[in-house]
Amino acid sequence: MSDRFPSPALPLFPPDDARIRVVGSFEGLVSTRFADGVNALCWRRELAGDFGEVVRLLNCGDGITPLDEETLVALPVGAAGRMAIDTMLADLERLEDAGLEPSLDCIRGYRRDVSTSPVSTDVFSFHVDSATAEADTYLCTYHGPSSEGLRNEDARRRVDVPETRAALRELYGDAKLDADFVAYLTTHHYDLHYVPARPEVKPYVFGVGNLWRIATQYPGSPVPPCIHRAPETRPGDEARLLLIS
């Protein structure tokens, strides 16, 4: 079996969460329409195979290393590692056959937002994905810490926090028009980032092996976008194997 990374402080997604629907197949994942407030679909899976062996043999460097079929097939893995590779390649093929452009990455760290802005816009910040037309995000963590989600009811846009908005307004220029300020927030993607609405709010984890489809923010979307973030990475952490489209 693949290595697991339980986080006792963060629960797996609440089974009674009205915004999340569990499906039993890939067909259900791609064909179910987002409606009635549901903005996340999860094909919940327990995957066989040794994904940790794959990571060890890849020996990825810092940052993000894209993986392809040729690289994975050439690894001198055992039977359990081969099973893990076959699973990842099968998921890639599923998404490609569905008309998507998935990528599989070995991740040891993401670039941090080092600006002095009051709103951090890196992937460690709770955020929503956005598009100009209908689109969804698919993702699955096979190894390492998984993505984290935040219920819409438990979240608040960072630009709506009075102290943060005041700091952004000062940074932009107090005398400039409100409409231009709103456009400024959008241009810099500040309006896509969120914080927990209350101190006691905790995120949930997407879990290892589960394949998710989450709603993005686009004009005319029937549901609010799904709020999520990448897990914190620390020196010495296991690398992540992440499929995303």
How are the SSEs ordered, and which strands pair?
Elements: E1 20-23, H1 26-31, E2 40-43, H2 51-58, E3 64-67, H3 69-73, H4 79-97, E4 103-107, E5 126-127, E6 136-143, E7 148-150, E8 155-157, H5 162-172, H6 178-187, E9 193-196, E10 204-205, E11 211-215, E12 227-229, E13 240-244
Parallel strand pairs: 1-2
Antiparallel strand pairs: 2-11, 3-4, 4-13, 5-9, 6-11, 6-13, 7-10, 7-12, 8-9
Short note summarizing the structure:
Helix 2 (51-58) crosses helix 4 (79-97).
Structural features, described:
The protein has 245 residues and is of the alpha+beta class. It has a domain at 20-147 and 206-244. It has 6 helices and 13 strands. The strands form 3 sheets. A 7-stranded mixed β-sheet has the order 1-2-11-6-13-4-3. Helix 2 (51-58) crosses helix 4 (79-97). It is globular, with a radius of gyration of 19 Å. The chain starts with 19 loop residues before the first strand and ends with a strand.
Order of helices and strands: EHEHEHHEEEEEHHEEEEE
Which spans of ≥5 residues are poorly predicted at pLDDT below 50? 1-8
Helix content: 10-25%
In one word, what is the shape? Answer: globular
Strand order of the largest sheet: 1-2-11-6-13-4-3
Number of helices: 6
Keywords:
7-stranded mixed beta sheet, 3-stranded antiparallel beta sheet, 21% strand, single chain, 24% helix, globular, 245 residues, alpha+beta, disordered N terminus, 13 strands
